[in-house]
Design brief:
This protein is α+β, with helices and mostly antiparallel strands and 422 residues long. Helix content is 64%, strand content 13%.
Length: 422
């Protein structure tokens, strides 16, 4: 009766932890499928390890059942290193960890020898556990895996900053907890301890690994929200600029050519009715829609500056990109490169280039110092914002080539494997 109460007292906190962890992992909306699956495997193996501890302890205290005691011992020694590998998958889910699995397989094969030799361990006829020359295999392989886990976390600690750096301390704490538990298990005999310290450390480590995982996803979610907020701010900077310049063109035409001003106003009004609503959303739009924005804007500008022409060579259409991506670049070409130049030309082309959708905006204008495009002043407004939205929304890039007196070429590249539709 005393043994049962003692065992119950040991099992109760473990059951509470694993039950709470199971419910939390199942309900957590931030965890992806891969991490959720790893956490459930850890929880399942933790329950089986608790059962293994209890059964092995009971078999050691009763009459000889050589096969079952050997089987449960082999199972316990086999899964202990696997927990370290699973903890590695929490931090590095996209890696195979083949070397670690190879060590786990070696550990399993060595312990299988208990069925037919004394090289690792064996159960004597009087039901005692006896050590062979390779009885420390599980311990040494586990220490190798722990050292590797600690090394990877310390390397991450060196490479990360801020809150992410502090999060790595959680894994270092789990490693230290496991090491202390291994030492404590060496000081306590199995007959006095139905559940090992290592089992407790693994359950506690599972909880702390989940805490790290949850904090990581919360931090990533916060970073996404901040990125979306930055995009909204950038969009708010671009849209008034576009509207202001269009209205300025109409104002100038009212003095020089009222009929053209009427035509431009009609075009602009149609444009606002059809497209302005979509520009309020900092999300991806079809390339065709961005071309429509660009054509509307360039038609307005060409009415005011008839010496400028726009050419299109569209070979690739089936992809998406951030709103107001091409139009601000055409605007820069017209206003800062071609204005006042005879036979000025802006060429907009698109094509599939390997694993990318490529859009090129080129002109035969004045050219400029490309370092000026990185500044936030009004000289080349929109370029920095376009580059940032391409990077944030679809993993795209923007490059600029320009020569003074010869013209400018801006190249947008969007990864084709996503087709800009994520």
């Amino acid at each position: 009766m005393v043994w049962s109460i003692y065992t119950f007292a040991l099992l109760l906190p473990l059951c509470f932890l694993l039950t709470g962890l199971t419910i939390t992992v199942a309900l957590d909306p931030y965890i992806g499928k891969k991490h959720r699956r790893v956490m459930f495997i850890i929880i399942g193996l933790s329950l089986s390890l608790i059962a293994q501890n209890l059964l092995e302890n009971a078999l050691a205290a009763g009459e000889l059942r050589w096969f079952w005691r050997t089987t449960w011992s082999v199972y316990g020694y086999t899964i202990r290193p696997i927990f370290i590998i699973l903890f590695l998958y929490i931090v590095f889910p996209d890696e195979k960890h083949l070397g670690c699995w190879a060590l786990a397989v070696v550990n399993f094969l060595i312990h299988l020898t208990a069925y037919f030799s004394h090289i690792c361990f064996w159960i004597s006829t009087d039901n005692h556990y006896l050590h062979g020359p390779l009885s420390k295999t599980c311990l040494y392989i586990s220490l190798i895996l722990i050292a590797y886990w600690l090394y990877r976390n310390l390397r991450n600690y060196h490479d990360t900053k801020g809150t992410e750096k502090r999060g790595i301390l959680i894994h270092i704490f789990v490693v230290l907890t496991i090491l202390v538990s291994i030492y404590m298990d060496g000081k306590v005999s199995g007959e006095d301890q139905p559940v090992t310290f290592l089992t407790y450390a693994i359950v506690i480590g599972s909880v702390f690994c989940y805490i790290w995982l949850h904090l990581r996803f919360v931090r990533m979610h916060e970073e996404d929200l901040k990125a979306q907020q930055r995009i909204k701010i950038m969009m708010s900077q671009i849209q008034p600029h576009f509207l202001y310049n269009t209205l300025s063109s109409i104002q100038a035409l009212c003095l020089t050519d009222p009929e053209k001003a009427f035509d431009v106003t009609e075009k602009f009004g149609s444009y606002l009715r059809q497209n302005l609503g979509s520009l309020d959303q900092p999300q991806l739009i079809p390339f065709e829609k961005e071309l429509e924005h660009t054509r509307t804007y360039s038609e307005i500008e060409m009415i005011r500056f008839p010496s400028i022409r726009i050419e299109y060579d569209v070979q690739d259409r089936d992809f998406r990109l951030p709103a107001l991506t091409v139009q601000p670049l055409v605007e820069n070409a017209i206003r800062h490169g071609l204005r006042g130049i005879e036979n000025g030309c802006v060429r907009v082309s698109s094509k599939r280039a390997g694993s990318f959708h490529e859009v090129v905006i080129s002109d035969n204008g004045r050219g400029f110092d490309t370092s000026a495009a990185e500044s936030a002043d009004g000289t080349h407004i929109g370029i920095r914002n376009v580059r940032e939205r391409l990077r944030s929304l679809c993993g795209g890039s923007l490059t600029i080539e320009s020569l003074l007196g010869e013209g400018t070429k801006v190249t947008i590249r969007i990864p084709a494997e996503k087709d800009g539709k994520q």
